[in-house]
Amino acid sequence: MENQQKNIQLNSRGQLRHFLSINGLDREILTEILDTADSFIKVGERSVKNVPLLRGRTVTNLFFEPSTRTRTTFELAAKRLSADVLNLDISTSATSKGESLLDTLRNLEAMGSDLFVVRHAASGAAHFIAEQVTPNVAVVNAGDGRHAHPTQAMLDMLTIRRHRGAFENLKVAIVGDILHSRVARSQITALNILGAAEVRVIAPGTLLPSNLEAFDVKIYNQMSEGLKDADVVIMLRLQLERMKGALIPSEREFYQTYGLTKETLSYAKPDAIVMHPGPINRGVEIASSVADGPQSLILNEVSYGIAVRMAILSMTASGQTQTEGLEE
Amino acid sequence: MADSGLRIKNGCLVDPKQGTEQIADLLVSDGKIAAIGAACDQFEATQEIDARGMWVMPGIVDLAAHLPESGYESRGSIRSELAAAAAGGVTTVCCTPDTQPVIDIPAVVKLISGKAGRSGLARVKCIGALTQGLEGSFPSEMYALKQAGCVAVSNLRMPFASNRVLLHCLEYAATHQIAVFLSPVDHTLSNDGCCHEGAVGVRLGLAGVPETAETVAIVTSLLLVEQTGARVHYSQISSARSVELIRQAQQQGLPVTAGVAIHQLLFTESSIDGFNSTFHLQPPLRTEHDRLALIEGVIDGTISAICSDHQPQNVAAKMAPFAATEPGISGLQTLLPLTMALFCEKMPLPAIIDRLTLGPAAIINQADTGLELGCNADLTIFDPEAEEVVDVDSWRSRGLNSPFLGQALKGKVMATFLEGKRVFG
User: Fold this and answer.
1) Which of A38, A97, B34, B83 could potentially form a cystine with B396 if both were Cys, beta carbons 3.0 to 4.6 Å apart?
2) Cα distance between residue B418 and residue B423, in whole Å
3) pLDDT tens for each residue of B390-413
4) What is the residue-averaged pLDDT of chain B?
5) Domain count within chain B
6) Terminal CA-CA length for chain B
7) Is any Cβ of chain A less than 8 angstroms from the Cβ of B206?
């Protein structure tokens, strides 16, 4: 698949034309995304925040699953690039009438859109859409099932690079529900491609996928061991419905064993940074004193999210334009 | 109904029972094998076929094919799928009970057998439902199903309400001496998974079926086989440990056999990479270690039947995000060349053919299969050297869900005979 994904995500010049998964991308492309995002952060600090890169183009936010943060930042990112934005909340309309994903897609294509930003509950949905859309329409994955959430992973990488510098020296610990997390899968892959010194995951056995070894991570069951000397601590949201699957006995016990408190954070390096993709469950996976504390970058992540999504939207749009040029 | 006096000349007769290959003539009369070798000269042949350079073998017996007509016409019809069987050298097709309505009463057996009989393309044997409606709660009328011609009963991959129901089903099947086909799966462990719970599935974020979903079900049912004496065939196993568990049970003398679908011997979990729904299968494709152990199981005879697990699907069924697609491969037409290509350097030719013919025939007690005098003249003539691109024009199944469409395969079925009547070629 590495090859197939590489082929589908990149045009013949190796430029990004869809952004579906971190898998299949190399360090140069990820670094280019981070560098481009850095330049957009400076734009965001100006009083006039818009640039004309996507003027005249239409970005369609195609959300089959509810989302506030991701959809809003994608919308802001597209508007700052001067694109026309169409927001479609499909979860309550077409699919409930029994229309297949493919038919929904054909209808939206007919309305004319240059970019689809897709969130869907099924793993592989963005990949499927990218295979089916007419050529020269870019697809950006905004989260598919448990598979990938690559723009979230890239904004996390941007946060780490801006606050802790080169990846080569960093030990990064990811804590919580790895099993169901598309964010964790994308983060682990991105950290390994960018050359992090060590990627660790900390979770009870019930929230760890089997065969995680294949991901090139170190696996810990205890916070005291897994957080030791960590430079970066990434907490994952514990989805409360997981309790029904008999995966953990109670929120209280999870907090006692895997909650990030001032005490558990003290196992990490004194200047370790704390991140969380949000929305946070205070008192379930993270204490308020840590979430709002000096080491937390949780709110910075949200504003970096806009810059990263501007970078990815502009790069994929340009990759598609180049593809068009190549084909002509 | 049969032609009389058909002489197949100069072919290499592959006899899985005797374990021999010999160049000789074979004579068919009244739908039966009437003479072999020099004895053919005693008969007058009204028709002759020159099979020089080709193999003449018993027709293939496929223990698992989904024939979609009843209720699912968009995926194909009995006629279209039996045409695929004939083109694949398959002369006996065991139809799984998941038709609509389910094969749990004799009337459905008659309906399917009638349609199959009118097509005249292959012999269809029904597998009855093990529980009423395949719902897993009450044993089906197995005696009546057997009387109507069912060669076995199965619940496919549908769950049993409890182990007690499974126990009673096995006891009742043993009472009426009907074989039970079990597709071992523990539903509390398989958890609606759509792929192997392994490195690839985890990376793709797809819900996985762990190997233990199969092995736990095998261990449980083996203990119940020991208790009941039921004759059980594990159809379509997928893991190395399953092979080992069944091998041990056979060594202990339990009346169990095992089968495997050809695609389990050819592919692994890596095939689903890129969310390739062609390889969405149940049971799922597992690891290279599992694949090699399954091949070893076929070679040492632990697994005595290779089946197609033919599941034709329409195009829309495979066009969705991976987990939402329908599982299965349309496999009847490619079973023989794929099996030959895989095993030709691993085991003697008659032994390979055994796993496709006498091995499965023994599991359904079909005695008149073989290349011996008096056997049904269900014959396949195969050219091992011919190379053919599998294309839509030569594809008979209505299901285009095959990874081999557009690919060149070595070996080609040249002709298929059902009771002496040519049904393909």
Assistant:
1) B83
2) 6
3) 999 999 999 999 999 999 999 999
4) 95
5) 2
6) 18
7) yes
Output the six-digit token pair for B161.
Answer: 């309400």
Residues A177 and A101 in one domain: no
Classify residue A163 as exposed, middle or buried by CB count within 10 Å of its CB (0-12, 13-18, 19+). Answer: middle
Beta bridge partners of residue B413, listed in sequence order = B382
- Write down the pLDDT at residue B173: 98
Query: Residue A210 and residue B203: Cβ atoms within 8 Å?
Result: no
Which candidate from A2, A4, A101 shows the least CB-CB separation from B321?
Answer: A101
Let me know if B41 is a catalytic residue. no
A118 shares its domain with A11? yes
Residue A17 is given by DSSP the state S
Domain check: are B48 and B63 in the same one? no
Contacts for A42 with CB less than 8 Å, ≥ 6 apart:
none
Query: Is the entire prediction scored with pTM above 0.80?
Result: yes
B215-242 burial: b if 16+ Cβ within 10 Å, else e: bbbbbebbebbeebebbbbbbbbbbbbb
Residues A284 and A321 in one domain: no
Can you read off the two tokens belonging to residue B147? 């009387």
State the residue range of the domain holding A58.
Answer: 2-148+303-327
Mean pLDDT of A203-214: 91
- Identify the band that residue A305 occupies on the pLDDT scale cut at 50, 70 and 90: very high
Residues A135 and A167 in one domain: no
Same-domain check for residues B410 and B302? no
Examine the domain organization and report whether B257 and B194 are in the same domain.
yes
